[in-house]
Task: inverse folding
C-alpha cells in the first residue's frame, strides 16, 4: 500500500511536528508533502532523513513571514499537490488547512487534526493582528472565502482523528463531522528516565514560544511581585515582540533561557518545583504532560485541552483565569499540597508515544487499510 503524509508547513519543530515525526516513523516509506520547507530550520533538521515534497508555491511563501499574509493562496497551494497515486494519505492539519489536494478515486484520506484554523473561527492566535485596521479589512474578505474552502475540503476527508475531546467538539461544530480522539505522543519514558535521582529546585518553569496568548506576561508579573523564581524556555516566533515586553517586566528572579536542547528541557522539567501552562483555549497542550512525566505538578488555566490532562489537586491546579492575583493564589495553594511524583508519572503514561503508535496502527488496521 502506497502511503503519503501531508503537513501544513515545515518551519518550526513544535507539537504538531512532533506528531508528524512519529507518523513518519510509523510509515518509513511515506514521503512528506507540505506547503513549504524552510531550509536550516529546526523542522528541516528533524526531517533531514525524509523525502520532502513542497508545493509549487513554496518559492514564494517560504520567505520571511509571507506565508501568513499570502494565506489567500491556500486553495491553489494544496490543489498544486497531486496525491492520486496513493492508496492512503494521512494529513496532519491545523492553521494552514493541509487539505484540498488532488486525490484518486480509491485514495483514502485520514486527517489528524490539531485544530481547525484558529484565525478563522475566533480563537486567540500568537499575534494579535486584529489591532491593525487594514488587517481587519483584509481578514474580513479573505477569511470568508477560506472558511468556505476549509469546510468544503473537510468534507473530502474520509476519517477524522483529533488530538483531544476539545478539538473533537470544534470539528463537529465547524465541519459537522464526527471524529476519533487519539491523544498526541509525548516522550513520557524519556522524561521519566531523565527525572530519576534528580533533586528538586525552588523555581517554577514555563516552556513556550514567546508569543501572545500564552499568559507569559501575567506569569512574570505574578512571579516578580511575590519574589518567586521563574524560568522560561522558548524562542520568539514571527513579529510577536513578546521577548522585549518580558525583558521590561522581569526582575532578577525571572530568567529567559531562549531555545534549549531536549536534554536541557528535560532537566528543567525535572528540577522545577512546578510548571505553568496558561494558554487560553489550548488545543491539547503537550507541555503539562511532559512536566508530569518528569514528576512535576502543573498550574494550568482551566481551559481547552488542559482540562483533559490536569486533574485539580492530584496532578496540578486549574486556575479560572490568568489574572496576576489568580496565579499568585494558585502558587500559594500549590505550596500547601504534598505532590505524589509516582501518581504524576502514572497519569502521564496515558499520553505516551508508544500508546499513540499503537492506537494509530489499530485505527488504520480496523479500516482495512493496512
Result:
Amino acid at each position: 500500500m502506497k502511503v503519503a503524509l501531508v503537513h501544513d508547513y515545515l518551519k518550526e519543530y513544535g507539537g504538531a511536528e512532533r506528531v508528524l515525526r512519529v507518523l513518519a516513523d510509523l510509515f518509513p516509506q511515506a514521503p512528506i508533502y507540505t506547503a513549504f520547507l524552510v531550509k536550516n530550520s529546526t523542522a528541516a533538521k528533524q526531517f533531514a532523513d525524509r523525502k520532502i515534497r513542497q508545493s509549487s508555491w513554496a518559492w514564494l511563501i517560504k520567505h520571511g513571514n509571507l506565508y501568513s499574509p499570502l494565506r489567500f493562496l491556500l486553495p491553489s497551494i494544496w490543489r498544486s499537490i497531486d496525491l492520486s497515486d496513493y492508496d492512503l494519505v494521512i494529513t496532519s492539519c491545523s492553521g494552514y488547512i493541509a487539505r484540498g489536494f488532488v486525490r484518486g478515486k480509491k485514495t483514502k484520506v485520514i486527517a489528524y487534526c490539531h485544530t481547525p484554523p484558529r484565525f478563522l473561527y475566533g480563537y486567540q492566535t500568537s499575534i494579535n493582528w486584529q489591532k491593525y485596521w487594514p488587517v481587519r479589512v483584509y481578514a474580513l474578505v479573505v477569511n470568508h472565502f477560506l472558511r468556505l474552502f476549509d469546510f468544503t475540503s473537510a468534507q473530502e476527508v474520509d476519517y477524522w482523528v483529533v488530538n483531544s475531546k476539545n478539538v473533537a467538539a470544534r470539528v463537529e461544530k465547524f465541519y459537522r463531522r464526527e471524529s476519533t480522539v487519539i491523544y498526541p505522543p509525548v516522550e513520557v519514558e524519556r522524561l521519566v528516565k531523565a527525572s530519576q535521582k534528580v533533586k528538586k529546585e525552588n523555581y517554577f518553569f514555563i516552556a513556550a514560544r514567546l508569543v501572545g496568548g500564552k499568559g507569559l506576561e501575567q506569569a512574570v508579573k505574578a512571579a516578580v511581585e511575590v519574589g518567586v523564581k521563574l524560568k522560561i524556555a522558548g524562542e520568539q516566533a514571527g513579529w510577536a515582540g513578546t521577548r522585549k515586553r518580558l525583558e521590561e517586566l522581569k526582575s532578577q528572579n525571572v530568567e529567559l533561557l531562549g531555545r534549549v536542547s531536549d536534554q536541557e528541557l528535560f532537566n528543567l522539567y525535572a528540577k522545577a518545583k512546578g510548571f505553568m501552562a496558561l494558554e487560553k483555549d489550548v488545543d491539547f497542550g503537550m507541555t503539562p504532560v511532559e512536566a508530569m512525566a518528569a514528576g512535576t505538578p502543573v498550574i494550568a488555566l482551566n481551559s481547552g485541552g488542559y482540562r483533559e490532562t490536569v486533574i485539580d489537586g492530584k496532578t496540578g491546579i486549574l486556575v479560572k483565569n490568568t489574572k496576576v492575583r489568580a496565579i499568585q493564589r494558585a502558587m500559594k495553594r500549590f505550596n500547601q499540597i504534598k505532590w505524589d511524583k509516582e501518581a504524576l508519572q502514572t497519569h502521564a503514561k496515558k499520553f505516551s508515544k508508544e500508546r499513540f503508535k499503537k492506537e494509530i496502527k489499530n485505527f488504520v488496521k480496523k479500516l482495512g487499510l493496512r
Summary: The longest strand covers residues 88-93. Residues 188-350 form a domain with the Rossmann fold fold (CATH 3.40.50.2000). The chain has a mean pLDDT of 94.
